[in-house]
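As noted in the main text, all predictions were made from sequence alone. Below is one such record, for Putative prolyl 4-hydroxylase, alpha subunit.
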Amino acid sequence: MDQSTPFNDRLVLAPTHDHMADKYDDLDTEFEPQLFSSLERHLPQHLRDASRDTKHERMQQILHRYSTKEECHRRIFQDPYMLNPKIFFQPTFLEAFRAKEGKNLVTSIRSIMSEPVPGVYTFNMLNLNFCQKLIHEVKHFEAWARNTDSSILRPNTGNGYGVSLDDIGMKATLDKLMEDYISLISRVLFPDVGGGSLDSRHGYVLQYGRDKVIKEDLHVDDSEVTLHVCLGNQFAGGELVFGGQRCKDHVNGGTHIEKEFDYLLPVGGQAIIHRGCRLYGAKPIKFGHRYNFLMWFKSSVFRELQSHDKGFKDFCDECQSQKIARLNEWVAAKKKGLGL
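Prediction:
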């Protein structure tokens, strides 16, 4: 083993998304500062807790070991790495945010929303030209990884066809997207699950196709709010399937039966946003490929409050089913006691 890379200093596969990484913009380094902030989330615990200088030195060693300066990923476009609203968004989306606060903002945000499934909202969001640039940037990054025999740290362990956007340098872009836009939308639509206090996020692009089978059975996300944006491309199939909602205690089952599912067909540039506790999955792609931009948003405040709340959750269908069942049992017992 190379003594410069002790076993206990190796990177971890799954990034620690809740970790608040340091900023490295003020350091004189040959690598991009955002790369260090992204890589820091893959450091083992004892290094994440070390000083910034120690982390920077260790990450520089890792980067030098696995790539030369000439081999580093080079961008095709600059647009994905700086959030220019006029380039990123469709005009109707931008118009909705001209009202900065109060009732006008709430009304404006709701005006661009459709609700084809209760609690699931769709709206036109990303400019189609920008969608194509993001697809090309992701494909370019994957090609670079293949050509340099570099490993890609996938967004989750169950999916081999995704790219974490933090890892290609889009951290600042995604932070601004959450702070300036999605937090406002979530505050209006999902106040019951911490939508008004989002403070961390995870963003990635997934590729679906007949030759790229991703298991998408009904599941919930480890998020308070989930955003999907179809980036387009030629494909058929891939409809999103929605069920009910589950709190963390009922994620893996319950007696409440899903009577029916609702289907939404992804449309290029269109966003779908819903609570992370919503059961959903994706039907198989019939032909072609679909690229999907996903973001998970979390609220540490909401999670702390939920850890102390042991009662029935209003947003969970299973909780409500059990609540009704207990109420019926109580009523039946009272009637029996009264001889009715």
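Confidence is low (pLDDT under 50) at residues 1-7, 254-259. The chain has two domains: 8-71, 79-304. These features were considered when defining construct boundaries for the mutagenesis experiments described in Section 2.9.
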